[in-house]
Amino acid sequence: MGLFASTRRVNGCIAGFLSIFGILLFGSTCFAEYSSLFSTSDTCSFCHSSGSSALIDSGGNELSISGDWGSTMMGNAFRDPLFRAKLESEVKRNPKLARAIEDKCTTCHAPMARTQAVWDGAQHYSLSEAEGSELAWDSVSCTVCHQIQDTNLGQKESFSGSYSIRDDRKIFGPYKNVFANPMLNHVNYLPLHGQQVDKPQLCATCHTLFTPYVDKDGNIAGEFPEQTPYLEWLNSDYSSPDNYQSCQECHMPRIDEPIKITNRPPWYNEKQSPFWMHHFTGGNTFVLEMLMANRQNLGVVATENQFKKTIERSEERLTNDSAEISIDHTELDNNRLKVVVKVINKTGHKFPTGFPSRRVWIRLHVQDDQEQVLFDSGNWTPQGNIVGLDENYERHYDTINSPEQVQIYQAVMGDVEGVLTHTLLEAAMYLKDNRLVPKGFVKSGSMTEHTLMTGKVVDDTNFNMEDGQEGSGADYITYDIPINSGRHPLTLQAQLMYQTSTPRFIENLLVDDTPAVSRLQKMYAQSGNDPIVVDSLSLALAE
């Protein structure tokens, strides 16, 4: 069974723990919770936060594991106000499936609490149970990821939160020949080398997610690929031996210099190399800013400064490592301007990534030397709405000749009858999925039954094609613009924009009257929904 038979909350990170020698260990001012399987992050931060000599690089920069992780989306997966509102909305719209919905969502958003409950015999785990558990509030924490067994990883059996955790209190890391006594004495975990912690297949356990969908009678009718970045990565150059790059290499930046990774015992000075910083950066600054602005109301532990650092890193990832826009060709002829815009995906999966509320679009703006606007496709309002957007959704374009046409890269969900829906439990198919695919992606590649493009994009010979060959990871769009009244020289500006959640997705969610939805509504009104400029360029065009 292990040393700790029941879940309990204790004052002090390790107060109440007796070492195997019967000596009471040092305490602290934080709270921690222990169960037969898990410990909250407080226990880990006691040793694995930056100290006078530990977790500091040669430049004096702090590398605190808990300090970096605590202000990420993973560190706040259960607090995430958008997730909580969406969960309550789905339950309200599908009340007879409430138990299944809450159990499925807590599997990856409150993994310690839900896994412990199932281990103790529960058939389902509820939101109300999670609300009262420190294990749940600790979100995707250290002793979840580092206890996942190397069992069926990368296989369908491990997807959708089907990670395997045992009760032998073995905890895995990237290093061999680890001095085990401190961790055994502090928290009764045996640290071992586990090659799985550096595998993308480990991340795939939660980030390859198939969710059930219902028919018009509210009965479960099948499964829907809600997010599949790992499957997209498999069908990319990044999974090949010559260009291999795992999730961890991008989202946990690596330092090759030797780092002292623990500040206790004080006399222990061994260093490890390489070291992976626990930044876990993505593109979701939208929710990170909500979490930072509402720290007290949401029970957030991380500091404002820590959130600022994570937001800055996330913005840098979006602007430096996600995608780029360029002008491939321009031509002025008979008072018409033709511009070929190229957009290329720089990630190892589709972009935008993950949950289908996200979108990326092109804003192309042309004005003359008198600043008269001649063309503007993809402009947006202060509320984050794209100007001229179609009532349902914008189709994919190969050629654009009107400012009301906007190239938007997104995944759009449809129900069993092919009608647009924002309700996840109604999502039976993608009506449109023209998200930028990673370099190397081919239609005959691995697991493409879940990852292929959908909609008008399938007829676009310029999408993911270069010289007649698949796998460019790029899209070429031709803009055909009348400039009859324009005075030269012209100025062209192209921007690639990113938004975590479309205003229509949020508006659809806010119609439900639940506590979490009401809380989100207030936060959303205060925060806004400004898009982020992923990349941009300006070009002067002479006559």
Number of domains: 2
Strand fraction = 15-25%
Instruction: List low-confidence stretches.
Output: 1-30
Major β-sheet profile: 6 strands, antiparallel
Number of strands: 19
Helix run count: 17
* Coarse structural class: alpha+beta
- Mean pLDDT over the residues: 93
Characterise the protein shown here.
This protein is of the alpha+beta class. It has two domains: 8-282 and 284-317, no CATH class; 325-541, no CATH class. Helices cover 25% and strands 22% of the residues. It has 17 helices and 19 strands. The strands form six sheets. Strands 11, 12, 14, 15, 18 and 19 form a six-stranded antiparallel beta sheet that branches. Strand 11 (359-367) and strand 12 (373-377) form a beta hairpin. Helix 3 (81-93) runs antiparallel to helix 4 (98-109) and helix 3 (81-93) crosses helix 17 (515-527). It is globular and about 80 Å long. Mean pLDDT is 93; it is low at 1-30.
In short:
This protein is of the alpha+beta class.
Features:
six-stranded antiparallel sheet, 543 residues, disordered N terminus, 19 strands, five-stranded mixed sheet, 2 domains, globular, alpha+beta
SSE arrangement:
Layout: E1 8-11, E2 31-34, H1 41-48, H2 65-69, H3 81-93, H4 98-109, H5 111-119, H6 127-131, H7 134-137, H8 142-145, E3 170-173, H9 181-187, E4 190-193, H10 200-207, E5 209-214, E6 220-227, H11 229-234, H12 247-251, E7 254-255, E8 275-276, H13 285-293, H14 295-298, H15 304-321, E9 323-333, E10 336-345, E11 359-367, E12 373-377, E13 399-400, E14 408-414, E15 429-433, E16 463-466, E17 469-482, E18 490-499, H16 503-509, H17 515-527, E19 532-541
Parallel strand pairs: 3-4, 13-17
Antiparallel strand pairs: 1-2, 5-6, 7-8, 9-10, 10-17, 11-12, 11-14, 11-18, 14-15, 16-17, 18-19
Helix pairs in contact: 3-4, 3-17, 4-5, 13-15
